[in-house]
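Researcher: Go.
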Amino acid sequence: MRRLLLSIASPAFLLAACVPTPGPRAPAGAPGVPPFPDARFALYLDPEALRQDLPTLPLPAAEAVRERLPGFPLLFAFLGTAPSEGYGVRLGKAVREGGALKVEVRTWGPAGPQGKVRYTYPLDLRPLTDLPPFPFELVFHTPEGRVLHRRERVRPPVATSGKAEEVGDPYGVVARWEEVYRDGPYLGRNLVRLHEEAFAVFYTPEGEGSRFYLDLPPWLLRGQETPLCALTDRPPEDLARKARGSLLGQVLTLKEVFVPLNQRHGLVERPLPPDRVPERAYVACLYGAEAPRPEALGPLVLDLYPARLVRREPQSVEVLRAEAGPTELVFQVRLHPMPLGDVPLDLYTLDPPRLPGGERVVAFPYHGFDRDPTQPRYALSLHEGPGGFFLWILQPEVHTFTLFARLTLCQKAEGKALSPLNPPPGATCPSLPLVQASYTHRGLLGPGAPLALRLQFRSPEGWRSEPFVVTVP
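Model: Structure:
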């Protein structure tokens, strides 16, 4: 049985030390403080969209949202995990401008230094009654006009049942093709729609072929349902003429090979060597609609999105974001290819800085303070496995993940690359900072802050990132 390293870091143990703080209705203290790295600005069109996103918030913030739900569509502003009281956020006016919805956000912080560390989670919620036509651009900005968050092409999630014009994605269509055909005594209909939305699809060499994968956007997912999506280089009009349910694998092809993109199922039936992969193709998502009458077949609806095919090296870890707040380091990483099983990761500090007392400063990866380790489509666990302790990504159905880290001080540790999870013989690297509700980087480092850390993700299974730098405040 795998031994848990941080059994005391349970939600029940941690929640008592931290409080959600919706904040006063009028700004107090210093105005215009920037959001923290784990801030969130969002528009939830329905309860299902919110339900899918709540696990990504700190537990106290998620609970405060559940208790205060005013209705949908719902504007949401979360300033992030603040190190003390006195921080706040408030949603201001929401204005429709052409094809955009612009939302003003006011933030504030304590007027002076705060001696006591007490985590707070400032947030604000507000229902909306008037939205621009879908799809539209959503912009959160400060009163001075600084953009805090921008999201393009907001639209509802796809419908998986209904009539041909209702299923799939009816928004952002730039062209469409229809074909009515006869199959024995039955009439059939194909509807192919080309969209302006474009995707990046990744592939890695694997054996004699390639593996293709991408994270589908949230509006293409409904709960745990995933549409059948595949890559194709066939012309849209050709698909409209020839697509048949029983022959789909022979028509919906890339270089005459059926290449499905249903989350983890990215392996192709026949090898497609990397040198045969084109630079451009379509992501094609298929839906079956209701038959309009008994003597007709259910229409096939095929939504096409232009795709750029991007090659990556196998078992590479791409660091998309690395940022330090006052209490944690926040990482967004992308694994290539999409994992088909659990992945153990370690975080190494390269050329770790030495403090005046001789301690080495290193970063300790974990699932985050006050956070649910079970995230949408993957889970995180810090435990022992073959070869040592690791931060495990469990049962991944995506290939982009949010990870966290705190700092600790290693004693008697030498070397160019140090891991506090698996320190060298004789070294000690306390894990206590991971469960401290009063932890801040500055409190640990004292006069040693700020400093820059060179970090690298590694795995005993061969996954590895390029070295990257994070400046700790």
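Model: The chain has six helices and 29 strands.
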